[in-house]
Design brief:
mainly alpha; 15 helices
Length: 363
């Protein structure tokens, strides 16, 4: 006998229940005027009245809409007729101390005595000597960097270094101008914009020996501070950030670093600049001018490269730019002339880019 299915099972077959989909907005729906029924609709949003209006027949389709546009009204606009879209004022300056958010009481010449007393009392209450010193130093750093045609990132680095010195309370016996000159010199090396002691001395009242001494002291101070910060981070189980201390040890200025700027000031071509840089590297590697300053070496390399490339510059022209005597340049060139085969690449001679016959004789 065949087995028949249970009547309960036959009357209630299993149902395929689909999972309920999450709600999402139906983007196929859009608002149209029920009178005009234009598609696409001509809808106008009147934010002043808060209404949504049909632009064809004037029917109000909605009210109390939210104005999502920017609203730049400030009290400054009303009081002084200025277009100031600022709502919260300037951003905090990381180079200054304190909250930098305070109320100032203005006083004009025609104000009352009470307003003058309030302004004076407010100035005394908010007076911060450290901030005043920092602002004066930053102003001086900006003026000196502008005078040397130094980029803004170097000026900002010098300001940051000066703030570190000021916050640590170091070098209290030194004049502010001396510390500023040392910070500018270090910032130039940090940002790969080398300047010589003579160039810093020419725009400041600080002597070259004093700049050299403050540079050594500052370099030692920042190095010891870096070691303390790294040790404290490692004790806490962290990994010190090599760029988080604001100072990194850099090597002294090389002749190659000075060649690019000196050649630019002498209006020499890119070919001559590249040639002088390569000769400077060879001179440093072979030790031909060992013991001489980077400025003298760079000047002699430029003097030789300019004659090799056919863009001759005499020793006087180079000395005016480099800041060394023409006699020093000639003496260095005399040594280099005897080693010219080692300093000049053979392919330059083979390709005709350089010619030994153009070199002046070393007397």
């Amino acid at each position: 006998m065949a087995n028949l299915p249970s009547p309960v099972i036959a009357m209630n077959p299993p149902l395929d229940v689909k999972p309920q989909e999450p709600w999402r907005e139906n983007l196929t729906m859009h608002l149209i005027c029920k009178d005009c029924k234009e598609d696409p609709p001509n809808i106008v949003e009147d934010f002043a009245a808060g209404d949504t209006i049909c632009g064809s027949c004037g029917l109000v389709l909605g009210d109390r809409i939210v104005d999502t546009r920017s609203e730049w009204r400030t009290f400054t606009n009303d009081d002084q007729n200025n277009d100031d879209p600022s709502r919260v004022g300037d951003g905090a300056n990381p180079l200054l101390n304190g909250a930098q958010l305070q109320t100032g009481i203005a006083f004009s010449g025609g104000g009352s005595a009470k307003a003058r007393d309030l302004s004076r009392a407010q100035n005394k209450a908010t007076h911060d000597k450290s901030t005043k010193i920092l602002l004066a130093a930053y102003k001086e750093i900006g003026a000196l960097c502008d005078g040397m045609s130094i980029p803004k990132n170097v000026a900002d680095t010098a300001k940051h270094l000066f703030k570190i010195v000021q916050d640590e309370g170091a070098f209290r016996g030194k004049s502010q101008e001396t510390v500023v000159a040392g910070c500018i010199f270090i910032a130039c090396r940090q940002c790969k914009v080398p300047r010589t002691f003579r160039e810093v001395f020419s725009i400041t009242k600080v002597s070259k020996p004093e700049i050299g001494r403050i540079f050594k002291h500052l370099e030692k101070f920042f190095g010891e501070r870096n070691e303390k910060l790294k040790a404290s981070v490692e004790e806490g189980g962290g990994v010190p950030d090599p760029n988080g201390t604001g100072f990194t040890n850099v090597d002294s200025t090389t002749p190659k670093d000075l060649c690019t700027r000196f050649c630019n000031l002498l209006n020499l071509s890119t070919k001559c600049t590249t040639m002088s840089e390569d000769i400077a590297l060879k001179t440093e590697a072979t030790g031909v001018l060992a013991g001489r300053s980077p400025i003298s070496t760079a000047a002699a390399c430029i003097f030789m490269a300019s004659h090799l490339a056919g863009e001759s510059r005499n020793a006087k022209d180079v000395s005016n730019i480099a800041g060394v005597s023409d006699g020093t340049i000639r003496n260095a060139y005399k040594i280099m002339y005897g080693k010219k085969e080692e300093l000049v690449r053979p392919e330059w001679i083979a390709e005709g880019r350089a010619d030994f016959k153009r070199l002046p004789l070393a007397n």
